[in-house]
Amino acid sequence: MDAMARNKRPSNWFRNANAKIAAIPMILTVLVVFVGGTLWTVLYSFTNSKLLPREKFVGFDQYERLWSSSKWLISIENLAIYGVLSLIFVMIGGFLLAALLDQKIRFENTFRTIFLYPFALSFIVTGLAWQWILNPDFGVQNVVRSLGWTSFAFDPLYNSDIVIYGVLIAGLWHETGLIMCLMLAGLRGIDEDIWKACRIDGIPTWKTYVFVVIPMMRGIFITALVLVTSGIIKVYDLIVAQTGGGPGIASEVPAKYVYDTMFLSQNLGQGFAASTMMLLTVVIVVVPWAYLEFGGKGRRV
User: Fold this and answer.
1) Ranges for the ABC transmembrane type-1 domain (predicted)?
2) Domain segments of the chain: what residues?
């Protein structure tokens, strides 16, 4: 009887058949649009395509031209500065804000809304808002000078040496609220008994956070790291709205380089090569994350 019952059970292929059938359009979209488009981009990065794609392969010539371009090198340098500082300040700032809100302060919902509100705005709106705030004629500099400090100077968007730091201010304002909410959710998931045990043992609060709480929030930190890093790599609209890549090319970033090369310079091959380098950067970030999240679990099972 048991054998007959087992034979009548549907195989794994037919379990949740409706859900699998409903997922077919999404799977096809991923394969055709994302995977197919990615392979097409990589393939044509080895061609001499200009206004239209053409199958005239030139080997690694596009990549050699790419890495000999001063504009591309400046964009990579800007991305490195923006990326490293964003990761540090967003992660630390988001965690500190979450730790403060986790103290059950009054008007917590109000503060949480205020901190998260910038993330609800697009990067275009954020860039324009901070362009006005940092404008020396009617922004921070003008306000401080009107208070009596006439020698005060603060115009980062008009100084090619520090313009990327002006962009960084807007980026931090936009992203920190999201990371705060993720960290706060992680803190609220810590069992209250753990906090009580640490207090009974006389462990200082900062040690509880560093040696107990943060290790328990490993998954939250990895997720936040991936979100912030992916946003850094594709940063484009913030630059366009705030500086337009200027002064000169001082605030160029790779995503803007790709757009300008493909649609303004009409050099598809060069743009595909730059896109492929950005894809490689994403792979370098995503693969270690996937290994940490899924590879380790597979070994422990």
Assistant:
1) 76-291
2) 1-44, 60-300
CB proximity list for 41: less than 8 A, separation 6 or greater: 272, 275, 276, 279
Contact 228, 90 (CB under 8 A): yes
65, burial (CB in 10 Å: exposed 0-12, middle 13-18, buried 19+) = middle
What are the residue ranges of helices labelled H in the chain? 2-8, 17-29, 36-44, 61-67, 70-101, 108-120, 123-133, 140-146, 163-188, 192-200, 205-208, 214-216, 218-233, 237-242, 254-259, 268-290, 296-300
One-letter amino acid at 98 equals A
Two tokens, residue 51: 């206004």
Question: 225-254 b/e with 16+ CB inside 10 Å = b?
Answer: bbebbebbbebebbbbbbbebeeebbbbbb
User: How far apart, in whole angstroms, are the C-alpha atoms of residue 211 and residue 214?
Assistant: 7
How confident is the model over 87-142, as pLDDT tens digits? 999 999 999 999 999 888 888 889 888 999 999 999 999 999 999 999 988 889 99
pTM for the model: 0.85
**DSSP letters of 83-106?**
HHHHHHHHHHHHHHHHHHHTT--T
Please state, in angstroms and rounded to a whole number, the distance separating the CA atoms of residues 83 and 245.
16
For domain 60-300, the CATH class is: mainly alpha
Which three-class secondary structure state does DSSP give residue 47? strand
Task: Tell how far CA 127 is from the center of its chain.
Answer: 16
Omega before 247 cis (within 30°)?
yes
Residue type for position 3: A
3-state class (DSSP) for residue 53: coil
